[in-house]
């Protein structure tokens, strides 16, 4: 069955304040490239606050073997995520400028937790794709992702935050590093989970 590939859109939620979104992500890409190249298509995505003000952009070029995604502020590249080829593992290298600050080595298969660790193998952040039910998973691309940067700020939990486990990290990521981590989450969705061209808005739950 042919599925029409649409531009990806995301809603960013803060679990401490779940009443309204804190930001949005919207892909901009060529409609023909989306249908022909699918998950290998080039695109740019704008990350905005709740009022629609642009914070930064991510740019993902066309790729054949290994994907890359770049985080840019005011047209200047601040960081990049490169996927490293492996037969079954999901490996990503995260850079801020020319300095690698984290790596992800996911064992693959049905493991949907992606841990960012430093050169000493210490945990820095974690991205989880949450199971939303067989109907969502089989017939739509409306996934839900939790990006956890550490347990600071989660001492008092509300609503969505009650479902997010605390995470103890070696250090807090800087804002540019968090932008690169968010770019990684978008790339993960494109590489592994957006394969049906279905409808639905994925959620990104960003926590401290």
UniProtKB/TrEMBL annotation:
Domain of life: Eukaryota
Entry GO terms, CC: plasma membrane
GO molecular function terms attached to this record: phospholipid scramblase activity
Entries under InterPro entries matching the protein: Scramblase (IPR005552), Tubby-like_C (IPR025659)
Pfam families, alphabetized: Scramblase (PF03803)
Family membership: Belongs to the phospholipid scramblase family.
Protein's name in the database: Phospholipid scramblase
């Amino acid at each position: 069955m042919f599925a029409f590939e649409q531009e990806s859109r995301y809603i960013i939620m803060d679990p401490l304040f779940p009443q309204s979104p804190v930001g949005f992500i919207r892909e901009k890409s060529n409609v023909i490239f989306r249908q022909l190249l699918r998950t290998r298509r080039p695109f740019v995505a704008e990350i905005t606050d709740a009022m629609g003000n642009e914070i930064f952009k991510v740019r993902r070029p066309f790729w054949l073997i290994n994907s890359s995604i770049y985080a840019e502020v005011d047209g200047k590249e601040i960081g990049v995520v490169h996927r490293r080829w492996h037969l079954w593992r999901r490996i990503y290298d995260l850079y801020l400028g020319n300095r690698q600050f984290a790596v992800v080595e996911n064992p693959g298969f049905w493991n949907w937790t992606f841990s960012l660790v430093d050169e000493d193998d210490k945990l820095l952040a974690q991205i989880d794709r949450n199971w939303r039910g067989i109907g969502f998973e089989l017939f739509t691309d409306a996934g839900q992702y939790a990006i956890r940067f550490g347990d600071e700020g989660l001492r008092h939990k509300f609503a969505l935050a009650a479902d997010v486990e605390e995470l103890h990290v070696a250090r807090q990521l800087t804002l540019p590093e968090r932008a690169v981590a968010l770019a990684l989450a978008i790339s993960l969705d494109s590489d592994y989970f957006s394969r049906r061209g279905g409808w639905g808005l994925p959620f990104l739950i960003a926590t401290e």
